[in-house]
């Protein structure tokens, strides 16, 4: 009987191992595909992170596709280029959730009816036929250096304390998707008047605003600032890059978090929409999604993706205040929220 149990267990393990190997196989690609071309607009991080290289090199080889990528230094620049009448592009990559509600953007994108074999995480609320295809996400949090801060904040109330004066950096809401989501987070939590009161109290603690998430994280890593507002996978991502850097900690304030998502989309002027959809499908495959984790520090949109252990230990935060934002109010008042913040903060911050 004991021998039978051992044989059964060994057989089960072998079958599981075979299944795992099958899951990691490259997607089936028809042989002798004709040459094709693809044009992509992307945020600069797509290139600087190395994600462009690992995704496009293999896709080009598999699908006999020549890919031309145009990168933009900020989210704002990417959005403006996408909205231009002269845009001649197939795919737009790097549209953040903080900009995704704008009608002037959405009218330039087309709906994608389905993405084969994409198992989107429930947090994303994706539905077939959407124009925006999520490929990575995270929850906004306070990330601090425990070598510089021994009494970290656990709430936005704590964050207003004068002991953190000029110790925090943020992304610019005008230029950056992460910055825009940071601003919307405070509106969602504290309301249209409450967010102003919060920023009046926080201003003394904000030392600088950065144009991009990459420069913001660099400021944290190099010790220029002890705290930033970023996504909750950032501390794990830093440790993945350098195991010696294990002194960064992510804290989601007690008031709640805010869902940050990055999207890709097919442009209405796309000349190669069929291969564009194939590229999106490839981006959402588990192998590519794993690279999204390693290169961008975001959680994968495809829930079937195997993650590094450090990321697997980061809890997915379900209480997200982004649901508090009325979509109509966001469309009608979002610009005024941004204008107030810009007027209030710009005279002091560089």
Annotate the secondary structure layout:
Layout: H1 2-23, E1 36-43, H2 45-48, H3 51-63, E2 65-72, H4 75-83, E3 91-96, H5 103-106, E4 109-110, E5 133-145, H6 156-159, E6 168-171, H7 177-202, E7 206-210, H8 213-221, E8 227-231, H9 234-241, E9 248-251, E10 259-267, H10 273-283, H11 286-296, E11 299-300, H12 309-312, H13 327-346
Parallel strand pairs: 1-2, 1-3, 6-7, 6-8
Antiparallel strand pairs: 3-10, 4-10, 5-8, 5-9, 5-10, 5-11
Helix pairs in contact: 7-13
Describe the protein.
With 350 residues, this protein is an alpha/beta fold. It has two domains: 155 residues, Periplasmic binding protein-like II (D-Maltodextrin-Binding Protein, domain 2), CATH 3.40.190; 156 residues, D-Maltodextrin-Binding Protein, domain 2. The protein contains 13 helices and eleven strands. Strands 1, 2, 3, 4, 5, 6, 7, 8, 9, 10 and 11 form an eleven-stranded mixed sheet that branches. Helix 7 links the parallel strand 6 and strand 7. Helix 7 packs across helix 13. The radius of gyration is 22 Å and the shape is globular. It starts with a helix and ends with a helix. The N terminus is likely disordered.
